[in-house]
UniProtKB/TrEMBL annotation:
Membrane topology field: Single-pass membrane protein
Pathway given in the UniProt record: Protein modification; protein glycosylation
Gene3D superfamilies found in the cross-reference section: Spore Coat Polysaccharide Biosynthesis Protein SpsA, Chain A
Any one GO molecular function term: dolichyl-phosphate beta-glucosyltransferase activity
Protein's name according to its UniProt entry: dolichyl-phosphate beta-glucosyltransferase
Statement: the UniProt record of this protein carries the keyword Transmembrane: yes
InterPro entries found in the cross-reference section: DPG_synthase (IPR035518), Glyco_trans_2-like (IPR001173), Nucleotide-diphossugar_trans (IPR029044)
UniProt organism field: Candidatus Roizmanbacteria bacterium CG22_combo_CG10-13_8_21_14_all_38_20
Enzyme class: transferase
Amino acid sequence: MQNHKPTVEIVLPVYNEEDELEAHTLKLRKFVDTQTNYSWDITIADNASNDSTASIGEKLAKKNGINYVRIAKKGRGRAVKQLWLESKADIVMYMDIDLSTDLKHLTPLVKALTSGADIAIGSRLLPGSEVEKRELRREFISRAYNLMIKILFMTRFSDAQCGFKGMTKKATMELIPHIEDNDWFMDTELLVIAEKSGYKIYEEAVRWVDTPGSTVRVLPTAMGDIKGLVRLWKTRPWKVIKKIKYC
């Protein structure tokens, strides 16, 4: 009798990514095919793109182990939450389509999730991480933001925003229904609530190379993050989760 291979579904949330979608999805597929200890699926989550993303995604979906889902409303957090909750895999993950994080870190995250961690994340701020080509302004904002999280919530994780994360299906079903944000703050909200609720978070120091021409607007995103932090500070949803978890 063969041992059960843990199943892993990787969600790629995209919006107007016609230039990178095909090459990077196939690069990821080629990589995971070499990681034979696990069974892999890749799902492209199209956030209402209005370029050629849909046609490219549909073409890729004809290949083995690649799925394409179109979501009518925008929001990276919305896409990740929906696909994670719908997944049948043992482990759910997501990564940014630019593949800024070196794929060599993917298997260590999965291994952590099969060895007791509830959540596993890449970190650009841990000792041993390598960050290349990142604009100084973005580096400063990232460090200041993560310091703010630590001060406000006394958390231990180092990098809330790296687009390279995974969860066990059990933790997903328990935590995601409590995550309100549908955009970029989703990552922070998930990690703060998870740690404050007693879930185990594994961090992997990663090699990360910035991609020129990022479409993320720094100021609006930062303002949304600050509003999210204020909401979390006021509502403290982990208190409810703790009661449910330990009843």
